Amino acid sequence: MRRTPHRLLRRPLAAAVAAAGLLGLLTAVPQTRPAPAGEPVASSSAAGGTATVFYSTKTRAWSAYYLHYSPDGGSWTTVPGTRMQAACADWVKLTVPLGGAAGLKATFTDGSGTWDNNAGRNYDLGTGNITVQDGTVAHSDPCAGTGPDEPEEPGGPNTASVYYATSTVGWSTVNLHYRPHGGAWTAVPGIGMEAACTGWMKRTVDLGAATGLQAAFNNGNGVWDNNNGGDYTLSAGLTTVKDRTVTASAKDPCAAEEPDTEAPSAPTAVKAAADGVAVVLTWEPATDDRGVTAYQITRTGGTKGTVVVDTTSTVFSDTGLDAHTAYRYTVRAVDAAGNVSADSAPATVTTGEKPTSPATGTPLGTDPRKDPIYFVLTARFNDGDATNNRGGSQHEKSGNAANDDPMFRGDFKGLVQKLDYIKGLGFSAVWITPVVLNRSDYDYHGYHGYDFYKVDPRLESAGASYQDLIDAAHAKGMKIYQDVVHNHSSRWGAKGLFTPKAYGVRDAQWSWYYDEKNDGFSYDGLTVEPKSGKSYYNGDLWSTAEPTGNTCVGWGTATGHTSPEGYRIYNCQWPSPTSGMFPKALYHTCWIGNWEGEDSRSCWLHDDLADFNTENAQVQNYLIGAYNKYIDMGVDGFRLDTAVHIPRTTWNRRFLPAIQERVTQRFGAEAAENFFVFGEVAAFVNDKWNRGSVNHSAQFFTWKERGEYSADDEKAALEMYDYEQQRGTAAQPVSDNAFLKGNAYHAPDRSRFSGMNIIDMRMHMNFGDADNAFHNGKDSDDAVNDATYNVVYVDSHDYGPNKSSERYTGGTDAWAENMSLMWTFRGIPTLYYGSEIEFQKGKKIDCGPTCPLATTGRAYFGDHLAGEVTASDFGKVSSATGKVADTLAAPLARHLQRLNEIRRAVPALQMGQYSTEGISGSMAYKRRYTDAATGTDSFALVTVSGSATYTGIPNGTYKDAVTGDTKQVTGGTLTVPAPGKGNLRVYVLDLGGKNAAPGKIGAAGPYLK
Question: Which of 214, 419, 734, 755 has the smallest count of CB within 10 Å of its CB?
């Protein structure tokens, strides 16, 4: 989000992350393992016909444990199920026959009406050894080596005691997969490690005659730490492995630590709020001498009996409840040692009516790198319903009225009507601006959130709700990425959290500004208040009488200043961070001074952007609960606005794990893996690190924390800031996830991935020309956890390249060249609406209400979309009439269609790693993507505009996807003549079968020929 001088623009989860929420986000099983790469793994002992289910009892204290299950495609056992047997300390188990089923659905109960049913979704379990511990599912045998006939610790002359640190990976289950030197590997996933002390897991293994071992670690769900593909070499004796650092003959990291027997404090301030048949439960974080790792929620009431649910957040959304029913909730805190607090004070709530049309959305759940993104400013894209158009208080002043162009003009109905236009261009993901109810004088863009739990009615229509948009997009195979704001609210606060009251007086000077109060009216942005005749009614925002508990200094006293009209200005007449109007606990109370300083994370950016104290649990709960609602609707991802203005520790501890946990809970681990989160870490410079500040650089936010900080989020933010600034740019982690090794693709190591991908600010800033963007982007890729997920665009609703305030005006040929690079280089190509016809090129992107929107880069686009359009597939239009047919016939629109066709046909262009090794040419590279699970192997040579020579490449037949030209390589070298500006060549290696080169894709166009 852009900061401009115009007033009216826009402006505690536990440290451990549930392993199930991270499934597949980290590195896949390495090829040296006896399991296919990229697949979840199970113990080989079950041979696919049984499942041995281990259930953790440590935090339950039930008198009995039953497994109620159904093999996939089979019938459920009779309630309460089959009683589980004691396995080892803190575990019970049951082995169940599966027949030919690939897994089972399961719940657990004490046999007396208390259930753990995974928050109503049941547990989806596979085969082999499976653990279920506090809501987390993994593949492991937690009792291996602890049977009555075996000593708990090997006692031979050669043993290795291996300690593994979990603080930087966030795993609750760890398996040690190893082989003694000269010996055989254990069966995947290895043997379970046991909690040794806070942040450490331990296992001692017998080496026989060997003096050491090779090892890798995993969380039991296919997520591995294999030392970046090289395995760990460990010696006999005591060894620690922490953040890829191996320390031999180490001191016992738990020796000085007394056993943790102290339970956490009970959670406080538990509140339950009903919304129909859903309940949002929030509470203040509990405290513990070594840190709280989870919370256990017990619900009573309703027809489903007592239900126990585990979460790592301090907010929980409970859905699918009975209508008009009283429920009672208590919360207990759990620490890493399994100590459980007392119950919190109960919170009671009664549900309301069951909606007549329940939400139907489910995310598509596919790899986001396959989906080019079309970015729309929803209110300015296409108007499907004129009855929800609103001009706001600045309609006349801005000049919009003269153009009959209200700021809120486009809507969801208009977007639904033109999904086929977007699909016809070849895009399969649509990024939309924030949907929450806004409140300011100029809030069409969505970044002035007022009620984060309510969709802005100015965007919705009968039959075209937000849910309808999501469902309509999914029906066409298209994703919806929702822009979300965690950093700030509107200047009028956040409804349900805090809304300020300003001083006002309806005297001869100010009666025009302050609307008469109407206690029976509630602002929603759309409805016209009858007394004032305004949809932007403000009668609820002001008071002449000083409010109870007011903290604003000098309430209502006259200042020495006047307005431009000459009217007297009073103290507390306008929201401000420094006046005391906003509570310090919930909002920051300072103005930003240094955009690359610590205050950029803890002060207001603009007077329209009231800066949340995101380190406060009440604020965190409010935001997590709000965005859970949209996850539940089935959105496919979030774009995180102003991400750089929130400390990375807060993202990593609170907001990012909350997203993963909710998606996993509602839709499963695979959906969570592919729920696309990308942040706006605005660094408007051309260099790799933002003026040398790591804390303000985009790539910094793709990494987990590597230090251990205070349990207090505010203190932790400062500790992390100082720690990383002192370490500097040279000591930041590096990654080869985006790079080929020679000509070979390798499994990416995502074990230190934070959960946030990024907008590629460096390429964006350097897109004055494509060659400059390419070389700058390439230079930054080793500092990004995985640059193949970078969102790449030329310009946006904020800036053009080089922080230009105008929409890109480099010319059609330059646009074509930029597109050819974006659609074939690593990352996800993204286009701001209208760029396919160079819409508003050279126009100022934004000027607030000081000029008409029609003269800016945020102009209304619907006039170019008039008519009918039907897409038969991505990039293919079967029919188009009217103005939209002309728009689709534009040179760049046709260029995009073919680029999208080519990209979709070549997996290497979508998800591949790349290299420029052995290649001459300015914008020339090779890309490869390999997936053993699907049998995919795609290798492509690309050159944009200029000639290239490739050496050291595999011999074989190569076919160009642009021209169909075929080259036979026998000596490892291929030379390609220059195709011309904006044109490109994509020579694909023919590997036969499903990996055969496609040859020419699509028809020749204005640039690709």
Answer: 734
